[in-house]
Amino acid sequence: MSAPAATPDTTAAVGDPRRWAALYVLCTGMLMIVLDATVVNVALPSIQDDLGFTQSGLAWVVNAYLIAFGALMLLAGRVGDMIGRKRVFMAGLLVFTGASLLCGVSQSSGMLVAARFVQGAGGAMTSAVILGMIVTMFPQPREQARAIGIYAFVASAGGAVGLLAGGLLTEAISWHWIFFVNVPIAVVTATLAARLLHDDEGIGLGAGADALGALLITSALMAAVYTIVGPAAEDGWGATTTLLLGALSLALLAGFVAREATARTPLIPLRIFRSRNVSGANAVQVLAVAGMMSTFFLGSLYLERVLGYDPLEIGLAFLPTTIVMAALSIRYSERLVTRFGARATLLPGLVLIALALLLFGRAPVDGQFVVDVLPVTVLLGTGAGLCFPALMNLAMSGATPQDAGLASGLVNTTAQVGGALGLAVLATLSATRTDTLRAAGESTAAALTGGYHLAFLVAAGLTIAALAVALAVLRDGPSAGAAVETELESASEGEPASVPAAV
């Protein structure tokens, strides 16, 4: 498939001095989405008391969002390529804002869970196309590395910020405001986006209007995420329901691959996976995010249940992660990627994340913040600040302009699926280990700590596996911005745009 000719709008978007303002608008939208994935965690006890959730039902306040978000990400990214990424971004903001309002006014458990599902759909639409817009706005390698560094900080540090924001809003006002606060932010973001983002026509529905493929991939991802956060987490990985749903999701995925390999106009052209950097970076992200997400969730439980921290103190405890990540992602990652290459920047980041998890795996029952928590948060922030900007550069490096939305959606999908998979596995391992220790006569605090230790050690193992994949598969090559720039130049000179080979 050839890249579309460079239109005046595309050219203006590339050279417009307002690009940086547009980047900050896109990142604000992304921050709102990422915050919502974690801000709810610290408010769950208040939500349970107010709406009468059962303990098992309470998990669906988070799960409903994850299912819709993870299942629709790839589809939303490809639709953005076809009909225009700005249109999908604006539509996603509208859906997300309306659902946030419904979440805030919910007076029953069923209403809140349903609204959270719709909110996840809006979040998928909004976030799936952002990275694709960024790499087309910033084709110069140095500018592109800096822009992706800012985006990566927002996408990865938002989890820690969400814990702090959730604690502040829940304690100062009520849990309703963790949803209401999205409304004014979304309105301002949409207003600025309408003015600053350039309209893009997309490649047209005829270039990828594959209804059957859309149905298969969305169903496969929804079944997979539901299996992870539902039966697997509640009944175990060997339960009959888990195995049947897992087999169903794999069968749907196999059907999707067969469909895309033979369709005349595939929804997701399989050529994108010919790039070893696209495939390898997404594999690394699944493993790394699966390990890192455990720090925010299980680390919060350790601070609350073992050390007795309140929601606000938990948020403040993870603040060093955000500060260090911001300093590296925004100020230094662009320089490091430009000078040493994305792969060389990624590898030490993964090492530091693994080291942080290993340290957390030895935190004692009577742990002290300065000795047992602060070093972990600093190492984690440093590792993530190095790792994720480089990883996103690599993940986008093999994508042509017409596939940028798809590549962006794929990056976000692997992050969400990796997070859901990792959290379900690690939380189950932690709970099982805790029950075993408690049955052996350990105190509650010691049993909980032992469970968290196991989870953190397994998370470190996942990160080490990500490091092994990165060493074996990834290669430094042209940046995403350079690929876009080359494609636009070729199109403007009337030459056919080529599909990049494996990097």
Automatic annotation (TrEMBL):
<feature type="transmembrane region" description="Helical">
    <location>
        <begin position="21"/>
        <end position="44"/>
    </location>
</feature>
<dbReference type="InterPro" id="IPR004638">
    <property type="entry name" value="EmrB-like"/>
</dbReference>
<feature type="transmembrane region" description="Helical">
    <location>
        <begin position="344"/>
        <end position="361"/>
    </location>
</feature>
<feature type="transmembrane region" description="Helical">
    <location>
        <begin position="113"/>
        <end position="136"/>
    </location>
</feature>
<feature type="transmembrane region" description="Helical">
    <location>
        <begin position="148"/>
        <end position="169"/>
    </location>
</feature>
<dbReference type="Pfam" id="PF07690">
    <property type="entry name" value="MFS_1"/>
</dbReference>
<protein>
    <submittedName>
        <fullName>MFS transporter</fullName>
    </submittedName>
</protein>
<feature type="transmembrane region" description="Helical">
    <location>
        <begin position="236"/>
        <end position="258"/>
    </location>
</feature>
<feature type="transmembrane region" description="Helical">
    <location>
        <begin position="56"/>
        <end position="76"/>
    </location>
</feature>
<feature type="transmembrane region" description="Helical">
    <location>
        <begin position="314"/>
        <end position="332"/>
    </location>
</feature>
<keyword id="KW-1133">Transmembrane helix</keyword>
<feature type="transmembrane region" description="Helical">
    <location>
        <begin position="406"/>
        <end position="431"/>
    </location>
</feature>
<keyword id="KW-0472">Membrane</keyword>
<dbReference type="InterPro" id="IPR011701">
    <property type="entry name" value="MFS"/>
</dbReference>
<keyword id="KW-1003">Cell membrane</keyword>
<dbReference type="InterPro" id="IPR020846">
    <property type="entry name" value="MFS_dom"/>
</dbReference>
<feature type="transmembrane region" description="Helical">
    <location>
        <begin position="88"/>
        <end position="107"/>
    </location>
</feature>
<feature type="transmembrane region" description="Helical">
    <location>
        <begin position="451"/>
        <end position="474"/>
    </location>
</feature>
<keyword id="KW-0813">Transport</keyword>
<feature type="transmembrane region" description="Helical">
    <location>
        <begin position="279"/>
        <end position="302"/>
    </location>
</feature>
<feature type="transmembrane region" description="Helical">
    <location>
        <begin position="373"/>
        <end position="394"/>
    </location>
</feature>
<keyword id="KW-0812">Transmembrane</keyword>
<feature type="transmembrane region" description="Helical">
    <location>
        <begin position="209"/>
        <end position="230"/>
    </location>
</feature>
<feature type="transmembrane region" description="Helical">
    <location>
        <begin position="175"/>
        <end position="197"/>
    </location>
</feature>
<dbReference type="InterPro" id="IPR036259">
    <property type="entry name" value="MFS_trans_sf"/>
</dbReference>
<feature type="domain" description="Major facilitator superfamily (MFS) profile">
    <location>
        <begin position="22"/>
        <end position="478"/>
    </location>
</feature>
